[in-house]
Amino acid sequence: MQNVERLISVFKKDDDALVDEINVDHLGFEKLRSVLNPSDDDKEMYDVYPIDSTKASQLKGLLDIKFDFNTYIYQLDCFAKK
Asked: Which long-range contacts (CB under 8 A, 24 or more apart) does 18-25 make?
């Protein structure tokens, strides 16, 4: 898990353009697991996890993000570190 980074990717709803990537590694793996509740098949959370309003409300107190679900789509992505 040390060779990956996890980001919240922010896409515009109208054209799916990527507008931002917010690194969330500082939250810690266990906190992300508790919020996003990955499947047993993905214990390391390598899959993409959509962030809905319920998950966003849990993340709001931990991150300086103003979620706007009318304009944007949010998801947690996992990438190999460069």
From this structure: 19/72, 21/77, 22/63, 22/65, 24/63, 24/76
Q: Residue 1 pLDDT more than 90?
A: no
CA distance 76 to 45: 9
Beta bridge pairs of residue 7 = 23, 77
Tallying the residues shown for the chain, one arrives at: 82
Domain of 49, in residue numbers: 4-80
- Our count of domains for the chain comes to 1
- Looking up residue 34, the CATH number of its domain turns out to be 3.10.50.20
Residue 31, SS3? helix
Q: What is the pLDDT of residues 16-69, one digit of tens each?
A: 999 999 999 999 999 999 999 998 999 899 999 999 999 999 998 889 899 999
